[in-house]
Amino acid sequence: HTFDCGLSKEGPVVRRKYATREKPAGLIKTANASIKQVQNGVIYELAIPWDELTPLRPAIGNWMGFSLVFYEDDGFGRETRCNWFGGAGGNGLAREPRLMGDVHFVR
């Protein structure tokens, strides 16, 4: 799954970048996002319902691959990139689970 989060004229939005077998590309109305400017930067909060991640089902003892890439673009092209296990060269385009960090489901 690949999601974009950004600030639109109507406020924060979350979109599925590519369609899956179960879910279409586009705006995810059930997701919640908050983008707040603070003195030293920006705080992003993002909540995506589990059913948007099908067939993934969280269960204690299971795990999933995860990467996160932030791009800053004020309309003049990408100026900043920050990533956590972002794939090939940190650009997030590889989408290869073996290059991602692990998230383990625990109690």
Helix and strand content put the structural class at mainly beta
Radius of gyration: 15 Å
Record field, number of beta strands? 9
How many distinct helices?
A: 0
Strand ordering within the main sheet: 1-2-3
Report the portion of residues in β strands: 35-45%
Overall, the morphology is: globular
Mind describing the biggest β-sheet? Answer: 3 strands, antiparallel
Alpha-carbon distance between the two ends = 25 Å
Low-confidence stretches at least 5 residues in length (pLDDT < 50)?
none
Following the backbone from N to C, one meets helices and strands in this order, namely EEEEEEEEE
Portion of residues in helices? under 10%
Overall pLDDT score: 82
Describe this structure in words.
- This protein has 107 residues and is an all-beta fold.
- The protein contains no helices and 9 strands.
- A hairpin with a 2-residue loop joins strand 1 and strand 2.
- It is globular and about 40 Å long.
- The mean pLDDT is 82.
